[in-house]
Protein backbone atom coordinates (compact mmCIF):
# COMPACT_ATOMS: atom_id res chain seq x y z
CA UNK A 1 0.00 0.00 0.00
CA UNK A 2 1.40 3.42 -0.90
CA UNK A 3 2.16 5.74 1.99
CA UNK A 4 1.03 8.92 0.25
CA UNK A 5 -2.55 9.64 -0.79
CA UNK A 6 -3.49 11.78 -3.81
CA UNK A 7 -3.79 15.41 -2.76
CA UNK A 8 -6.53 17.82 -3.86
CA UNK A 9 -8.68 20.64 -2.51
CA UNK A 10 -10.87 18.26 -0.53
CA UNK A 11 -7.79 16.82 1.18
CA UNK A 12 -6.80 20.36 2.16
CA UNK A 13 -10.22 20.93 3.69
CA UNK A 14 -9.96 17.72 5.70
CA UNK A 15 -6.51 18.68 7.01
CA UNK A 16 -7.78 22.14 7.92
CA UNK A 17 -10.50 20.54 10.01
CA UNK A 18 -7.87 18.63 12.03
CA UNK A 19 -7.47 14.85 11.96
CA UNK A 20 -9.53 12.99 14.51
CA UNK A 21 -8.80 9.60 16.04
CA UNK A 22 -11.90 7.45 15.45
CA UNK A 23 -12.52 3.86 16.52
CA UNK A 24 -15.41 1.84 15.15
CA UNK A 25 -16.27 -1.19 17.29
CA UNK A 26 -18.45 -3.92 15.79
CA UNK A 27 -19.36 -6.99 17.83
CA UNK A 28 -18.93 -10.29 16.00
CA UNK A 29 -22.29 -11.96 15.18
CA UNK A 30 -23.57 -10.34 18.36
CA UNK A 31 -27.00 -11.94 18.97
CA UNK A 32 -25.83 -15.39 17.85
CA UNK A 33 -22.60 -15.11 19.86
CA UNK A 34 -24.56 -14.30 23.02
CA UNK A 35 -26.68 -17.41 22.45
CA UNK A 36 -23.58 -19.56 21.93
CA UNK A 37 -21.95 -18.07 25.03
CA UNK A 38 -24.96 -18.81 27.20
CA UNK A 39 -25.64 -22.28 25.80
CA UNK A 40 -22.47 -24.39 25.39
CA UNK A 41 -24.40 -26.90 23.25
CA UNK A 42 -24.62 -24.25 20.50
CA UNK A 43 -20.91 -23.51 20.30
CA UNK A 44 -19.33 -24.36 16.99
CA UNK A 45 -22.73 -24.97 15.41
CA UNK A 46 -24.71 -22.96 12.82
CA UNK A 47 -27.13 -20.76 14.75
CA UNK A 48 -29.80 -18.30 13.61
CA UNK A 49 -31.52 -15.91 15.99
CA UNK A 50 -35.13 -15.20 15.07
CA UNK A 51 -37.69 -16.98 12.95
CA UNK A 52 -38.27 -20.70 12.61
CA UNK A 53 -38.01 -23.27 9.85
CA UNK A 54 -41.49 -22.40 8.63
CA UNK A 55 -41.70 -18.61 8.92
CA UNK A 56 -40.09 -15.39 10.04
CA UNK A 57 -36.83 -13.60 9.36
CA UNK A 58 -33.27 -14.25 10.54
CA UNK A 59 -32.17 -11.41 12.85
CA UNK A 60 -28.60 -12.67 13.18
CA UNK A 61 -26.49 -15.64 12.10
CA UNK A 62 -23.40 -17.21 13.64
CA UNK A 63 -20.24 -17.43 11.56
CA UNK A 64 -20.78 -21.18 11.27
CA UNK A 65 -24.16 -20.43 9.62
CA UNK A 66 -22.69 -17.73 7.40
CA UNK A 67 -20.43 -20.26 5.70
CA UNK A 68 -23.63 -21.73 4.23
CA UNK A 69 -24.79 -18.32 2.98
CA UNK A 70 -27.19 -17.59 5.85
CA UNK A 71 -27.47 -13.85 6.50
CA UNK A 72 -29.49 -11.47 8.64
CA UNK A 73 -32.80 -10.25 7.13
CA UNK A 74 -33.04 -13.52 5.15
CA UNK A 75 -36.36 -15.39 5.22
CA UNK A 76 -36.06 -18.26 7.65
CA UNK A 77 -37.27 -20.81 5.13
CA UNK A 78 -34.46 -19.78 2.78
CA UNK A 79 -31.92 -20.03 5.60
CA UNK A 80 -33.14 -23.52 6.53
CA UNK A 81 -32.88 -24.61 2.90
CA UNK A 82 -29.29 -23.33 2.65
CA UNK A 83 -28.30 -24.94 5.96
CA UNK A 84 -30.51 -27.94 6.90
CA UNK A 85 -28.73 -28.33 10.27
CA UNK A 86 -29.37 -24.68 11.21
CA UNK A 87 -30.48 -24.20 14.82
CA UNK A 88 -33.09 -21.46 15.35
CA UNK A 89 -33.10 -19.58 18.66
CA UNK A 90 -35.81 -17.16 19.79
CA UNK A 91 -34.38 -13.67 20.31
CA UNK A 92 -33.75 -12.46 23.86
CA UNK A 93 -33.54 -8.72 23.35
CA UNK A 94 -33.41 -7.85 27.06
CA UNK A 95 -30.29 -9.99 27.38
CA UNK A 96 -28.73 -8.35 24.32
CA UNK A 97 -29.51 -4.90 25.71
CA UNK A 98 -27.94 -5.80 29.04
CA UNK A 99 -24.74 -6.94 27.33
CA UNK A 100 -24.79 -3.84 25.14
CA UNK A 101 -24.90 -1.65 28.26
CA UNK A 102 -21.86 -3.52 29.62
CA UNK A 103 -19.99 -2.78 26.42
CA UNK A 104 -21.08 0.87 26.42
CA UNK A 105 -19.71 1.22 29.96
CA UNK A 106 -16.33 0.02 28.70
CA UNK A 107 -16.40 2.63 25.93
CA UNK A 108 -17.17 5.37 28.46
CA UNK A 109 -13.91 4.67 30.29
CA UNK A 110 -12.02 5.86 27.21
CA UNK A 111 -14.19 8.69 25.86
CA UNK A 112 -17.53 10.45 26.39
CA UNK A 113 -17.86 10.79 22.61
CA UNK A 114 -19.80 7.62 21.78
CA UNK A 115 -22.21 7.36 18.84
CA UNK A 116 -24.10 4.06 19.00
CA UNK A 117 -25.35 2.77 15.66
CA UNK A 118 -27.10 -0.25 17.15
CA UNK A 119 -26.78 -2.59 20.10
CA UNK A 120 -23.63 -4.09 18.65
CA UNK A 121 -21.66 -1.26 17.07
CA UNK A 122 -20.57 2.29 17.80
CA UNK A 123 -18.17 5.04 16.82
CA UNK A 124 -15.79 6.40 19.45
CA UNK A 125 -13.86 9.67 19.11
CA UNK A 126 -10.73 9.13 21.21
CA UNK A 127 -8.85 12.20 20.00
CA UNK A 128 -8.70 13.69 23.49
CA UNK A 129 -6.97 10.60 25.00
CA UNK A 130 -8.43 10.89 28.50
CA UNK A 131 -6.15 8.21 29.98
CA UNK A 132 -2.94 9.38 28.34
CA UNK A 133 -2.51 6.11 26.46
CA UNK A 134 -0.98 7.87 23.49
CA UNK A 135 -2.28 5.63 20.70
CA UNK A 136 -5.75 5.09 19.26
CA UNK A 137 -4.64 1.66 18.07
CA UNK A 138 -3.60 0.71 21.58
CA UNK A 139 -6.97 1.96 22.89
CA UNK A 140 -8.80 -0.26 20.40
CA UNK A 141 -6.75 -3.24 21.56
CA UNK A 142 -7.54 -2.47 25.20
CA UNK A 143 -11.27 -2.06 24.49
CA UNK A 144 -11.41 -5.40 22.65
CA UNK A 145 -9.57 -7.12 25.49
CA UNK A 146 -11.94 -5.62 28.07
CA UNK A 147 -14.99 -6.70 26.09
CA UNK A 148 -13.67 -10.26 25.93
CA UNK A 149 -12.84 -10.30 29.65
CA UNK A 150 -16.11 -8.75 30.83
CA UNK A 151 -18.60 -10.38 28.43
CA UNK A 152 -16.89 -13.46 26.98
CA UNK A 153 -17.54 -12.08 23.48
CA UNK A 154 -15.29 -10.88 20.67
CA UNK A 155 -15.35 -7.57 18.85
CA UNK A 156 -13.67 -6.28 15.72
CA UNK A 157 -12.28 -2.76 15.57
CA UNK A 158 -11.36 -0.26 12.90
CA UNK A 159 -9.12 2.70 13.67
CA UNK A 160 -8.74 5.69 11.37
CA UNK A 161 -8.99 9.45 11.05
CA UNK A 162 -12.68 9.56 10.10
CA UNK A 163 -15.89 7.59 10.49
CA UNK A 164 -16.14 6.28 6.93
CA UNK A 165 -12.70 4.71 7.03
CA UNK A 166 -13.02 3.40 10.60
CA UNK A 167 -16.19 1.52 9.65
CA UNK A 168 -14.54 0.03 6.57
CA UNK A 169 -11.57 -0.99 8.70
CA UNK A 170 -13.64 -2.77 11.35
CA UNK A 171 -15.02 -5.08 8.68
CA UNK A 172 -11.63 -5.80 7.13
CA UNK A 173 -10.37 -8.52 9.49
CA UNK A 174 -13.57 -9.94 10.97
CA UNK A 175 -14.14 -11.81 13.17
CA UNK A 176 -12.08 -10.80 16.22
CA UNK A 177 -9.83 -8.54 14.16
CA UNK A 178 -8.25 -5.10 14.14
CA UNK A 179 -7.41 -2.91 11.16
CA UNK A 180 -5.77 0.53 11.19
CA UNK A 181 -5.95 3.01 8.31
CA UNK A 182 -3.45 5.77 9.02
CA UNK A 183 -3.42 9.32 7.66
CA UNK A 184 -2.19 9.21 4.09
CA UNK A 185 -3.41 5.65 3.53
CA UNK A 186 -7.15 6.33 3.25
CA UNK A 187 -7.48 6.95 -0.48
CA UNK A 188 -5.20 4.04 -1.52
CA UNK A 189 -7.10 1.71 0.83
CA UNK A 190 -10.48 2.71 -0.59
CA UNK A 191 -9.21 2.42 -4.18
CA UNK A 192 -8.69 -1.32 -3.79
CA UNK A 193 -12.12 -2.09 -2.33
CA UNK A 194 -15.20 -3.26 -4.22
CA UNK A 195 -17.79 -0.48 -4.17
CA UNK A 196 -20.33 -2.77 -2.52
CA UNK A 197 -18.21 -2.48 0.64
CA UNK A 198 -18.98 1.24 0.89
CA UNK A 199 -21.46 2.11 3.61
CA UNK A 200 -24.61 3.36 1.86
CA UNK A 201 -24.03 1.45 -1.38
CA UNK A 202 -26.69 -1.24 -1.43
CA UNK A 203 -27.23 -4.06 -3.92
CA UNK A 204 -29.21 -1.86 -6.31
CA UNK A 205 -26.59 0.91 -6.34
CA UNK A 206 -23.82 -1.66 -6.79
CA UNK A 207 -25.65 -3.13 -9.78
CA UNK A 208 -26.05 0.32 -11.30
CA UNK A 209 -22.36 1.02 -10.82
CA UNK A 210 -21.41 -2.31 -12.37
CA UNK A 211 -23.48 -1.43 -15.45
CA UNK A 212 -21.43 1.79 -15.69
CA UNK A 213 -18.16 -0.12 -15.43
CA UNK A 214 -17.57 0.81 -11.78
CA UNK A 215 -16.47 -2.15 -9.71
CA UNK A 216 -13.84 -0.73 -7.33
CA UNK A 217 -13.02 2.45 -5.51
CA UNK A 218 -10.41 3.20 -8.18
CA UNK A 219 -13.09 2.94 -10.88
CA UNK A 220 -15.31 5.31 -8.93
CA UNK A 221 -12.53 7.83 -8.36
CA UNK A 222 -11.90 7.97 -12.11
CA UNK A 223 -15.38 9.52 -12.60
CA UNK A 224 -15.71 13.24 -12.05
CA UNK A 225 -18.32 14.89 -9.86
CA UNK A 226 -20.51 15.91 -12.79
CA UNK A 227 -20.71 12.27 -13.93
CA UNK A 228 -21.60 11.10 -10.43
CA UNK A 229 -24.30 13.76 -10.06
CA UNK A 230 -25.81 12.78 -13.41
CA UNK A 231 -26.06 9.12 -12.40
CA UNK A 232 -26.38 9.11 -8.60
CA UNK A 233 -28.08 12.40 -7.74
CA UNK A 234 -27.94 13.34 -4.07
CA UNK A 235 -25.55 10.47 -3.29
CA UNK A 236 -22.90 11.84 -5.65
CA UNK A 237 -21.15 14.23 -3.28
CA UNK A 238 -20.88 11.53 -0.60
CA UNK A 239 -19.38 9.08 -3.12
CA UNK A 240 -16.94 11.68 -4.45
CA UNK A 241 -15.58 12.39 -0.96
CA UNK A 242 -15.70 8.81 0.31
CA UNK A 243 -13.61 7.41 -2.53
CA UNK A 244 -10.95 9.97 -1.61
CA UNK A 245 -11.02 8.87 2.01
CA UNK A 246 -12.74 12.07 3.13
CA UNK A 247 -15.48 12.24 5.77
CA UNK A 248 -15.92 15.38 7.88
CA UNK A 249 -18.82 14.07 10.00
CA UNK A 250 -18.17 14.32 13.74
CA UNK A 251 -18.99 11.56 16.19
CA UNK A 252 -22.32 12.64 17.66
CA UNK A 253 -22.89 11.55 21.23
CA UNK A 254 -26.51 11.03 22.31
CA UNK A 255 -27.71 11.00 18.70
CA UNK A 256 -31.32 9.82 18.89
CA UNK A 257 -32.89 7.99 15.98
CA UNK A 258 -36.51 9.02 15.46
CA UNK A 259 -37.46 6.38 12.92
CA UNK A 260 -36.09 3.38 11.10
CA UNK A 261 -37.25 2.12 7.75
CA UNK A 262 -36.47 1.27 4.18
CA UNK A 263 -37.86 1.65 0.71
CA UNK A 264 -37.51 0.07 -2.69
CA UNK A 265 -37.93 1.50 -6.17
CA UNK A 266 -39.34 -1.18 -8.44
CA UNK A 267 -37.70 -2.11 -11.73
CA UNK A 268 -41.19 -1.94 -13.22
CA UNK A 269 -44.28 -0.20 -11.85
CA UNK A 270 -46.62 -2.56 -10.00
CA UNK A 271 -50.38 -2.22 -10.16
CA UNK A 272 -51.81 -5.53 -8.93
CA UNK A 273 -52.66 -6.25 -5.33
CA UNK A 274 -50.80 -9.60 -5.31
CA UNK A 275 -47.72 -7.97 -6.82
CA UNK A 276 -47.71 -5.20 -4.22
CA UNK A 277 -48.23 -7.66 -1.38
CA UNK A 278 -45.29 -9.73 -2.59
CA UNK A 279 -43.12 -6.62 -2.75
CA UNK A 280 -44.25 -5.62 0.74
CA UNK A 281 -43.23 -9.02 2.13
CA UNK A 282 -39.65 -8.43 1.01
CA UNK A 283 -39.56 -4.93 2.48
CA UNK A 284 -40.98 -6.18 5.79
CA UNK A 285 -38.12 -8.70 6.03
CA UNK A 286 -35.45 -6.11 5.30
CA UNK A 287 -36.83 -3.44 7.64
CA UNK A 288 -37.48 -5.80 10.53
CA UNK A 289 -33.93 -7.11 10.18
CA UNK A 290 -32.66 -3.54 10.68
CA UNK A 291 -35.05 -2.99 13.59
CA UNK A 292 -33.84 -6.15 15.32
CA UNK A 293 -30.18 -5.25 14.80
CA UNK A 294 -30.71 -1.73 16.14
CA UNK A 295 -32.46 -3.14 19.21
CA UNK A 296 -35.20 -0.53 19.06
CA UNK A 297 -38.94 -0.68 19.66
CA UNK A 298 -41.57 1.58 18.15
CA UNK A 299 -45.25 2.46 18.21
CA UNK A 300 -46.07 3.73 14.72
CA UNK A 301 -45.87 1.88 11.41
CA UNK A 302 -46.08 3.94 8.22
CA UNK A 303 -46.45 2.65 4.66
CA UNK A 304 -45.46 4.89 1.75
CA UNK A 305 -46.30 4.41 -1.92
CA UNK A 306 -45.05 6.66 -4.71
CA UNK A 307 -47.22 6.29 -7.78
CA UNK A 308 -46.28 6.40 -11.43
CA UNK A 309 -47.00 10.14 -11.63
CA UNK A 310 -44.81 10.68 -8.50
CA UNK A 311 -47.74 11.48 -6.24
CA UNK A 312 -47.36 10.10 -2.74
CA UNK A 313 -49.78 7.95 -0.77
CA UNK A 314 -49.10 7.20 2.90
CA UNK A 315 -51.01 5.40 5.61
CA UNK A 316 -49.97 4.93 9.25
CA UNK A 317 -51.14 3.15 12.36
CA UNK A 318 -50.06 4.01 15.90
CA UNK A 319 -50.43 1.78 18.94
CA UNK A 320 -50.63 2.80 22.59
CA UNK A 321 -47.70 0.44 23.19
CA UNK A 322 -44.69 -0.72 21.23
CA UNK A 323 -45.16 -3.14 18.34
CA UNK A 324 -44.88 -6.60 19.89
CA UNK A 325 -42.61 -8.24 17.34
CA UNK A 326 -42.08 -9.17 13.68
CA UNK A 327 -45.44 -10.89 13.28
CA UNK A 328 -47.41 -7.88 14.51
CA UNK A 329 -45.21 -5.55 12.46
CA UNK A 330 -45.97 -7.58 9.34
CA UNK A 331 -49.69 -7.77 10.17
CA UNK A 332 -49.93 -3.98 10.57
CA UNK A 333 -47.99 -3.35 7.36
CA UNK A 334 -50.26 -5.66 5.36
CA UNK A 335 -53.32 -3.93 6.80
CA UNK A 336 -51.95 -0.53 5.78
CA UNK A 337 -51.45 -1.71 2.22
CA UNK A 338 -54.90 -3.27 2.00
CA UNK A 339 -56.40 0.03 3.16
CA UNK A 340 -54.78 1.83 0.19
CA UNK A 341 -55.87 -0.71 -2.43
CA UNK A 342 -56.92 -0.48 -5.16
CA UNK A 343 -54.51 2.22 -6.32
CA UNK A 344 -55.58 4.77 -8.94
CA UNK A 345 -52.38 4.00 -10.87
CA UNK A 346 -49.35 1.72 -10.56
CA UNK A 347 -46.75 2.23 -7.85
CA UNK A 348 -43.08 2.81 -8.61
CA UNK A 349 -41.79 2.85 -5.02
CA UNK A 350 -42.79 1.36 -1.67
CA UNK A 351 -41.42 2.22 1.77
CA UNK A 352 -42.05 1.07 5.32
CA UNK A 353 -41.05 2.86 8.54
CA UNK A 354 -41.25 2.26 12.27
CA UNK A 355 -41.27 5.43 14.36
CA UNK A 356 -41.94 6.53 17.92
CA UNK A 357 -38.77 4.62 18.75
CA UNK A 358 -37.53 3.59 22.16
CA UNK A 359 -34.26 1.92 23.09
CA UNK A 360 -34.20 0.80 26.72
CA UNK A 361 -30.91 1.55 28.39
CA UNK A 362 -29.51 3.61 25.53
CA UNK A 363 -27.55 6.70 26.34
CA UNK A 364 -24.07 8.03 26.68
CA UNK A 365 -22.40 11.11 28.01
CA UNK A 366 -23.09 14.17 25.94
CA UNK A 367 -20.30 16.20 24.43
CA UNK A 368 -19.51 17.84 21.15
CA UNK A 369 -16.89 16.37 18.85
CA UNK A 370 -14.17 18.88 18.08
CA UNK A 371 -10.93 18.85 16.10
CA UNK A 372 -7.90 17.95 18.19
CA UNK A 373 -5.58 20.50 19.71
CA UNK A 374 -2.32 20.74 17.79
CA UNK A 375 0.18 18.05 18.78
CA UNK A 376 -2.16 15.93 20.89
CA UNK A 377 -1.84 12.14 20.57
CA UNK A 378 1.05 11.96 18.16
CA UNK A 379 0.90 8.17 17.82
CA UNK A 380 -1.99 6.82 15.82
TrEMBL record:
The active site is at residue 121. Transmembrane segments: none annotated. The record marks 31 as: Substrate discrimination. Its EC number is 2.7.7.7. The keyword Metal-binding applies. Binds 2 magnesium ions per subunit. Residues 22-202 form the UmuC domain. GO terms for molecular function: DNA-directed DNA polymerase activity. Pfam families: IMS (PF00817), IMS_C (PF11799), IMS_HHH (PF11798). Mg(2+) binds at residues 26, 120. It is an enzyme of class 2 (transferase). CDD domains: PolY_Pol_IV_kappa. It is found in: Cytoplasm. The keyword 4Fe-4S does not apply. Its cofactor is Mg(2+). It catalyses: DNA(n) + a 2'-deoxyribonucleoside 5'-triphosphate = DNA(n+1) + diphosphate. PROSITE patterns: UMUC (PS50173). Keywords: Cytoplasm, DNA damage, DNA repair, DNA replication, DNA-binding, DNA-directed DNA polymerase, Magnesium, Metal-binding, Mutator protein, Nucleotidyltransferase, Transferase. Residues 361-380 are annotated as: Disordered. Poorly processive, error-prone DNA polymerase involved in untargeted mutagenesis. Copies undamaged DNA at stalled replication forks, which arise in vivo from mismatched or misaligned primer ends. These misaligned primers can be extended by PolIV. Exhibits no 3'-5' exonuclease (proofreading) activity. May be involved in translesional synthesis, in conjunction with the beta clamp from PolIII. Belongs to the DNA polymerase type-Y family. Monomer. This is DNA polymerase IV. It comes from Novosphingobium ovatum.
